[in-house]
Design goal:
Layout lengths: L14 H11 L4 E3 L2 E3 L11 H8 L5 E5 L7 H8 L5 E7 L4 E6 L2 H10 L10 E4 L12 H4 L6 H4 L14 E5 L7 H5 L7 E7 L4 E6 L2 H14 L1 E3 L2 E7 L8 H8 L5 E5 L7 H8 L5 E7 L4 E6 L2 H14 L7 E4 L29 E2 L1
Antiparallel strand pairs: 1-2, 3-5, 3-6, 4-5, 7-9, 7-11, 8-9, 10-11, 10-16, 12-14, 12-15, 13-14
């Protein structure tokens, strides 16, 4: 909070939560008190590993004090907590002998929880973490963060505030059909934006990196519960090596709606699929080209979102034939919601009857 400039900066643990918050309120009239406020992006920052690890174990901004006596008041708690940093909220509940102090950062709360039990004022009292009210499920909670639909199995793997207990983003798919292609893989992937599909045909394996760890977890849980079939063959699903932090160039492009899919149009008669493949393959490996001839438009999906970003940023300036066309991001079909769990519709048909060539069994 910078009072002299009447502004503040909110830093989320998960980048996806910040994006969800921004998208939820962008363009809306938001009031704090009687003052209308503006939203925008601050400088990119990375959550320190020690804070992330502590959050996975239950840390948050809210400190719980139990077994309180009459000495515990808002004034006494303010005196004890102010040395750790700015206080967001203090709540004392005398009839339950408990109290909660919301600090303005997780790091401040971590110091308080580590230090206060050794102070005389807190002798005989319990000091631990409460629940951060900013991490409530619902509204902008876990369901929206999954990129579509709330999956109870995925939620069971999350900690306070919907943070995944394992921040993995990369899934391993093994035992693929010898004739499988990146398109076959992406036809099955659902639940979140895909950053990259690393297909290794010689090993019949693939590694799929999602933007959001929670999308990867939801698919991992569903795949292990129901099985995954790609091109008529059931495949193995597991975890790959942890993906590095999303590069700032990709993170900034995501704020502008970046996906693996690029829209281009209107196309004239000379622009066919082969021409698009030749021109677009200079930017990276192509997963799928979809021509919508009756609308004179096309969509090119890459295996790597970084390739799509390069196209949108450079194609019109590097290739004169596209200078007058619209080149923008399309929708990544992998970001479509996971279908309901199989258990929800088995009563409509016999088990196995709707397995099909690909999907979840």
């Amino acid at each position: 909070m910078i009072e002299e400039k009447s502004c503040c900066f909110l830093t989320f643990i998960e980048a996806s939560s910040a994006m969800q918050f921004f998208n939820e309120y962008q363009g809306k009239r938001v009031l704090i008190g009687d003052q209308e406020i503006k939203f925008g992006w601050g400088k990119a920052s990375i959550c320190p590993q020690y804070i992330y690890n502590d959050v996975l174990n239950g840390s948050c901004r809210n400190v719980y004090i139990g077994q309180c006596d009459e000495t515990v008041t808002e004034e006494s708690l303010r005196t004890e907590f102010e040395p750790f940093g700015p206080i967001d909220q203090i709540r004392v509940i005398p009839d339950k002998h408990i109290a909660f102090v919301h600090l303005c950062s997780v790091a401040q709360a971590m110091k308080a929880v580590a230090t206060l039990p050794n102070r005389p004022f807190f002798a005989g009292k319990k000091v631990n973490y409460g629940k951060d009210r900013s991490g409530n499920v619902g509204g902008m909670g876990v369901g929206n963060a999954l990129g579509g639909g709330f999956d109870p199995a995925a939620f069971a793997m999350m900690g306070n505030g919907g943070i995944p207990m394992n921040p993995q983003r990369t899934l391993y798919l093994g035992g693929l059909h010898p004739d499988a292609t990146p398109k076959d893989i992406c036809d099955v992937l659902r639940g979140g934006l895909v950053q990259k599909v690393n297909f290794l045909p010689e090993k019949n394996t693939a590694f799929v990196t999602f933007i959001d760890p929670m999308a990867a977890h939801a698919l991992f849980v569903r795949g292990n519960n129901e099985g995954v079939v790609i091109k008529g063959k059931r495949v193995k699903i597991g975890w790959g090596k942890p993906a590095p932090v999303i590069p700032s160039t990709i993170f900034q492009a995501l704020q502008q709606g970046a996906t693996r899919n690029v829209y281009v149009g209107p196309l004239d008669a000379s622009m066919d699929e082969d021409r698009l493949r030749t021109d677009f393959s200079e930017f990276g490996e192509i997963e799928l080209i979809n021509m919508v001839k009756d609308k004179n438009i096309g969509f090119v999906s890459f295996t790597d979102i970084a390739s799509a970003i390069k196209v949108v940023e450079n194609l019109q300036s590097s290739n004169p034939q596209y200078s007058s066309l619209r080149v923008a991001y399309g929708k990544d079909r992998c970001n479509n919601p996971l279908r309901p769990p199989r258990s929800q519709y088995l009563h409509h048909s016999q088990a196995g009857s709707e397995g099909g060539d690909s999907g979840f069994y």
